[in-house]
Amino acid sequence: MTKTKKFPLIVMGFVLLIAVWQMVAVIGGHQAALFPPPLKVGAALVSIIVDGSIFTHIQISLFRFFTGYVTAVFVAVLLGLVLGRLPVVWQVLDPVVQVLRPVSPIAWSPFIVLWFGIGNMPAIVIIFIAAFFPVLLSTVSAVKKVDQTYLRIAANFEMSQVETLWKIVLPASFPMIANGLHMALGSAWIFLVAGEMVGAQSGLGFLIVDARNSLSLDLVMACIVIIGVLGLILDKGIHYFETWVNRIWGGTQ
């Protein structure tokens, strides 16, 4: 389906969502202060856009997100490429990873705040933890599934281990690694907001807590809308990055 045909369906989906939202607000009989309807949230959204305050929080949140996410991806892919080629070492580390992976990054927040204080670092560290494990596991799994024919060709050309990882293993395993990038992005974006609620004095998560404390639930909902839209944009961005890399390496699009 072409993008031109998809766009009306996307618009229809959002219109349906807003209609259901309005219907719940009316039929449920909720007070506007407790369950803000779309128009009230829209007015709050316009107000924070007009005064420009929201853009500062968005900029700070995106800085924290990209710092934590990109660092996690770099470290996890690098480790995953190496550990995937060292099955004995991975058998030793895999149980440790499986124990740490299910622990919510927020569970580490008391230690993170104590070690890193307040500000950018707690949120960045939480994002790093949230993104690290999905990328690491997908990378290790992808490296293990690389066609042995490619590795024999690399050996025949007497490639070094570094050249084999960079020129053979990484391109061959990237489609599967990309799945980890998608999962890590969603997880990291969710925990960005949670991290900013714990140890930050700025950002979208902090803005939600601040609005909640002042009982401005229309502003809370407006921030939720912004977080959702930004998450959608980031997901599309990683999709285009995946397509671009596949095009360079001759993979499927």
What's the short story on this structure?
By secondary structure, the protein is mainly alpha-helical. Helix content is 82%, strand content 0%. The protein has helices at residues 3-27, 38-50, 53-84, 87-100, 109-116, 120-144, 148-156, 161-199, 204-213, 217-249.
- Give the radius of gyration: 22 Å
Mean residue pLDDT: 85
Number of domains: 1
Which CATH architecture? Answer: Orthogonal Bundle
The helix fraction, in percent, is over 70%
The CATH class is: Mainly Alpha
What does this 3D model show about the protein?
With 253 residues, the chain is an all-alpha fold. The protein has one domain (54-249): MetI-like fold, CATH 1.10.3720.10. Helices cover 82% and strands 0% of the residues. The protein has helices spanning 3-27, 38-50, 53-84, 87-100, 109-116, 120-144, 148-156, 161-199, 204-213, 217-249. The two termini are 14 Å apart.
Strand and helix layout:
Layout: H1 3-27, H2 38-50, H3 53-84, H4 87-100, H5 109-116, H6 120-144, H7 148-156, H8 161-199, H9 204-213, H10 217-249
Helix pairs in contact: 2-10, 3-6, 3-8, 5-6, 6-8, 8-9, 8-10, 9-10
What are the salient characteristics of this protein?
253 residues; mainly alpha; MetI-like fold; 82% helix
